[in-house]
Amino acid sequence: MNRLLRAIAVALALAFAAPSVSYAKTAEKKAAKKVDKLDINSASEEELKALPGIGEAYSKKIVEGRPYKAKDELWEKKIIPKATYSKIKDKIIAHQAK
Predict the structure, then answer these.
(1) Residues of the chain by 3-state class (helix, strand, coil), percent to 5
(2) pTM for the complete prediction?
(3) Domain over 38-93 is classified CATH 1.10.10.60
(4) Where along the chain do its domains lie?
């Protein structure tokens, strides 16, 4: 009887713990979406180098190719390879000057 009660208690604990883990992951994803994206039209070479796959040469080419109407111009104009663009596309934006 004592084992049965322990098994039920463990099962209930796991059942109630699972939704909170799921909620935590959802909240974490929402927070990640709110992170500011790096503007390729105004970022410094140092800021650009912090992006995955972007080193000194690519950051210099990005700065020299400004202004960009859209972020995908980085690979369309062959500033960076498409594979590198795929790594950073969710971390960048191309704001237009007003």
Answers:
(1) 60, 5, 40
(2) 0.64
(3) no
(4) 1-34, 38-93
